[in-house]
Amino acid sequence: MSSPNTAVDSVNNIDGLEGLFTFGQQLGNFDAMWLSIWTWDLIAFGVSHGLAGLLAAIRFQSQLNSWKTWLLPVVFAAFGLIIPATAGLITAVLIAAIYTNAGFNMTTTEALAWGAGQFVLYTVFGFRANYSSL
User: Which of 8, 64, 94, 96 could cysteine-pair with 34, CB 3.0–4.6 Å?
Assistant: First the structure.
C-alpha cells in the first residue's frame, strides 16, 4: 500500500469525500451527493468571506488597536460559515434527494455547479436586498 503523493490523493482517501476534486466521477449514493454539494458551497462561501475578512483587516489596519476593530474581520469570516452551514445544508440535501428519487446520477462536476450556483444565488439576492435599502 503506497502513501498518497499529492494533496488531491490525500483528499480522495477521506471517507465521504472520495473524488471530490476528481471532476466527472460518479457520486453513487445520497450521502456522497449532498456532502459534495455542501462541501463546494462551504468552499465558495469560506473563500469569499475569508477574503472579505482579510480585506477588512487590511482596510482597518490603522485602527486595529481596539478589540472592536479586530472583531469585524472575524464576523465576516464567521458569516461565511453560518450561511452555508444552515441554508446550504438544507438545499444540498433537497437537491440530493431529488436526484436520488428521480434516479439521476450526479457527477462531482455537477456537485461543484450546484454548490457554486448556490453561492452565486445567495450573493445576487443579498446584493439585491442591500441595494434596495440604499
Answer: 96
